[in-house]
Design a protein that fits this description.
By secondary structure, the chain is an alpha+beta fold. Helix content is about 45%, strand content about 20%. The strands form six sheets. The protein has a four-stranded antiparallel β-sheet with strand order 1-2-8-5, with no helix packed on it. Strands 6-7-3-10 form a four-stranded antiparallel β-sheet, with no helix packed on it. Strands 15-14-18-19 form a four-stranded mixed β-sheet, with helices on both faces. The longest helix has about 40 residues, at about 195-230. It starts with a helix and ends with a helix.
Amino acid sequence: MKKIILLSFLCFGFLLNAQIFNPVEWSFSQNKISENEIELTFTAKIDSGWYVYSQYAGEGPVSTEFTFSESESFILQDKVKEGKAITEFDPNFDVVLSYFKKEAVFTQLIQISSEEDFLINGDVYFMTCDAGQCLPPEAVEFSFEVEGTQQSSSYSIWRLFFIAFLSGFAALLTPCVFPMIPMTVSFFTKQSKTKSKGIFNAIIYGISIIVIYVALGVGVSSIFGADALNNMATNVYFNIGFFLLLIIFGASFLGAFEIQLPSSWVNSTDKASDRGGLIGIFFMAFTLALVSFSCTGPIVGTLLVEAASGGYMGPIIGMLGFSLAIALPFALFAAFPGWLNSLPQSGGWLNSVKVTLGFLEIALAFKFLSNADLVLQTHLLERELFIAIWVVIFALLTMYLLGFLKFAHDSELKYLSVSRLSMAFLAGTLTIYMIPGMWGAPLKIINAFPPPMQYSESPSGLGSSSAISSSSHSVSGQHIGPQGLMVFHDYKEGLQYAKKVNKPLMVDFTGHACVNCRKMEEQVWSNTDVKNTLMNDVVLVSLYVDERIDLPTNEQYTTTMAGKKKKVKTTGDKWMVFQANTFGTNSQPYYVLLDHNENQLNEPANYQDYGSVPVFKDWISRGLATFNK
């Protein structure tokens, strides 16, 4: 009671004088530490003779305190840190206290969990005194404008662009597109009055091709949006639909039938191209896109699906790379028409390219069927069967390239070219490489395509004892997971077990149809050091956000996620909402290390930024070091 009376007297005694004191000025700044981390700095400039108390001042005065508004856009890392305080006898409170003179600097590390820009609001509550009096505690509000972080790194964007460019080059070498190069270039050079005019028209033609395909990418992104594109990969009906579509396109490539757009569309654009000028050139490019649809359509469709994981910009970047590969030859050969003589003549080799793409389309089709099977957990297309299908497909492709198989539109193969033999060698090598995969071999080269090892008839591998020995140490609620590791599929069970064995909890937000999740598990988790750490030093919980097991009726509910109503009906819905509402993201894979109080031990990890062994090892080591302090 005496301390309260003393504090009140000190705080309000200054009101007897007419002077108004303002001895402290606060300033706020931020510094970006990494792609998804920032450091907030709170600086107090203190007038001479005055001081501001530490967060840990001691008994008596009001300690400095920071309050942050709750938000799903960021996560506080540890507590607010402060500089070295002065610890001396305070005559106002007649005890030894901790405080700052002249300047006090506080910092708070923030983990960004939002892709959009956001505000961090709050206030700092502090008390100021001098040798003879104290001012009333005061709250100063602060606000930081923070830029969101994109889950896709620049590396991923460039990788997508490169794959798209190679896809465009493959489309360029099909019977629908390749013969158009000399025809179109000859048209521009003959119809133009000068060489420079012909080059200009060819360049406009190439730019028009790029505009048309990029517009397609913009349309896909605008119609579906980033969230829908990211969720496509786990949608059962989408994967089955695309499986059927690729089978149809693949059969068409093999020569079973011809797929064409309505002739009225082609005729309309062809008439528009007769107008001349820039508009006519644009419609010539549009005619090319329609006429070549039977060859480019399957490649464009597959590319758009693969690019969807890149969010809103994925399809746009994909179509830019694809169209650039197609457009470049027209501009280059128009500038240097003499190069046309070096082009190989159109002939049977173009159909061979088309048939080869047909085999690849059919192989890729089973990846989408596998996605649907994994999500539904029907176990109809397990790892062994999937690999067996691919072995047959690539064995047939090898036989075709060597001339042992022939399709309807193939011309007579008099001899094997070096390029064809090289392709046959690669296809045959891949075929032989995949065969041991039916008996448990990891197949790291193609690990993103087959179902994971645990989704097979023999999860432990035929004749293997490593995973079996792991499972012998399992407890109730654990299952064999990636790399034979024992994992929980329930968050609460995993947390309870982590407390029991005194280990940190590693939460793995994953998906049955998540390609990048498989890449992490096969390329990073397979490392001996990483695998041993995951097996012995943490309790691993794998939560599948696309699990289609219905929750009990009494556990189903409706919630709000990202501002929209979301029906939580399945186990996957439950974990997806948990991830989004707790960590502010819905992308997978997403890894979080937690202590027993469910506090994060370090920043979360993803595939884009932590998809290599050294980086992932460093991430998990830092988390373990924090836990063991």
